[in-house]
């Protein structure tokens, strides 16, 4: 039972029957979430392409069904994501009006709608590129790995889209914890440096940010637990909360491990344990935003589509049975 300490999971959810195998039609998945987790994140349907598919037309029904299910079952919601360059509706990508007004309309309408229902938001997701620039990653502009359109937010508003977004989110929701969320910042490298510099700038300007979300899409052998712990500690040292938002562990990142063997299951158990232990060792109790895995069952993981290989990254197998991984995770909980 992982609910000992604020543990969450991203869940697939129905959306206009585009993808209808979400949690609301799966009592077995609901039971696992209620028993083992105390928070959920909508894997997709609270992103801008789903909530505002055409300008001024907000489509909340499906996400409301998910949020209301959570509230009815004593499960909190970490909302994801107000401003991201992926999964934007086409009208937004191609928008030619006032971008600050358009961003404010989206953030305000959505965050007001969920105020009092969600406990936290990923306000801005993945603003930095992976390429290095004197020890820092550059702001994402035209890089290919964002669907080829780069970040329209950065291109139209410059780096100030970030403080503006946090200020707008706080104005719309007075109490939700507001996070900046990114991946590949857990290796104590250039991208983390960019996030730390952003944090310093936001804190210096009294921008309402509460924490940093570490997505933690890691491999069984990368990055080291030491680098992960150091990365957590550097954020915690700024007084910000640290939340693991999307943890999963690729066991076959290179496609050279065709089957999930008992040895790999043991390796994954130890890997989950060392990551959760690094979190508790490096993040003071009052700065822990929690730990969420990106999916419950290996059958629902985004990773095989992403890598093109079989993989077994999560705590439950394709039949929703517990894997040794969950024991490793639980062993490190405090
Ligand atoms: O399945 C529908 C299909 O029925 C419909 O016709 C089609 C119309 O475009 O959309 C399909 O939706 C897919 C969606 O997942 C729901 O399954 C999209 O094609 C697919 O691109 C989308 O992938 C999601 C991905 O974000 C998009 O970048 C993954 O499920 C989701 O796990 C992943 O999550 C992201 C986080 O939000 C941010 N951090 C990284 C993480 C992994 O990429």
From TrEMBL:
List the active-site residues: 246 (nucleophile)
- PROSITE patterns, per this entry? GH10_1, GH10_2, PROKAR_LIPOPROTEIN
> Which ranges carry the GH10 domain?
23-332
Please verify whether the record's keywords include rRNA processing: no
Q: What is its EC class?
A: hydrolase
UniProt keywords, alphabetically: Carbohydrate metabolism, Glycosidase, Hydrolase, Polysaccharide degradation, Signal, Xylan degradation
Q: Which reaction(s) does the protein catalyse, per the Swiss-Prot or TrEMBL entry?
A: Endohydrolysis of (1->4)-beta-D-xylosidic linkages in xylans
Matching SUPFAM superfamilies: (Trans)glycosidases
The record's listing under Pfam families reads:
Glyco_hydro_10
Coiled-coil residues are none
Keyword field contains Signal: yes
User: What's the Enzyme Commission number for this chain?
Assistant: 3.2.1.8
Q: Which family does it belong to?
A: Belongs to the glycosyl hydrolase 10 (cellulase F) family.
Q: What is this protein called?
A: Beta-xylanase
């Amino acid at each position: 039972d992982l609910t000992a300490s604020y543990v969450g999971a991203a869940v697939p959810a129905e959306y206009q029957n585009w993808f209808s195998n979400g949690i609301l039609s799966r009592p077995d998945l609901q039971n696992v979430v209620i028993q083992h987790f105390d928070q959920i994140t909508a894997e997709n349907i609270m992103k801008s392409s789903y909530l505002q598919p055409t300008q001024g037309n907000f489509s909340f029904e499906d996400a409301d069904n998910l949020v209301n299910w959570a509230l009815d079952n004593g499960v909190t919601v970490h909302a994801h994501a107000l401003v991201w360059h992926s999964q934007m509706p086409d009208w937004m990508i191609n928008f030619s009006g006032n971008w600050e007004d358009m961003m404010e309309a989206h953030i305000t309408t959505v965050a007001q709608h969920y105020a009092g229902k969600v406990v936290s938001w990923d306000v801005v997701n993945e603003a930095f590129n992976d390429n290095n620039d004197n020890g820092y990653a550059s702001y994402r502009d035209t890089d290919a790995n964002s669907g080829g359109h780069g970040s329209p937010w950065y291109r139209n508003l410059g780096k100030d889209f970030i403080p503006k977004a946090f200020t707008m989110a706080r104005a719309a929701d007075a109490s939700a914890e507001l996070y900046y969320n990114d991946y590949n910042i857990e290796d104590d490298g250039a991208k983390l440096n960019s996030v730390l510099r952003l944090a310093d700038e936001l804190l210096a300007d009294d921008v309402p940010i509460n924490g940093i979300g570490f997505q933690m899409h890691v491999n069984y052998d990368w990055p080291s637990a030491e680098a992960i712990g150091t990365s957590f500690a550097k954020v915690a040292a700024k007084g910000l909360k640290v939340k693991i938002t999307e943890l999963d562990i690729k066991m076959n990142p290179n496609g050279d491990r065709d089957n999930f063997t008992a040895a790999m299951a043991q390796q994954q158990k130890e890997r989950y344990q060392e990551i959760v232990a690094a979190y508790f060792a490096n993040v003071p109790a009052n700065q822990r935003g929690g730990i969420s895995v990106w999916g419950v069952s290996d059958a629902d993981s985004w990773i095989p589509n992403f890598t093109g290989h079989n993989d077994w990254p999560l705590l439950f197998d394709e039949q929703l049975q517990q894997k040794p991984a969950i024991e490793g995770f639980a062993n490190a909980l405090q």
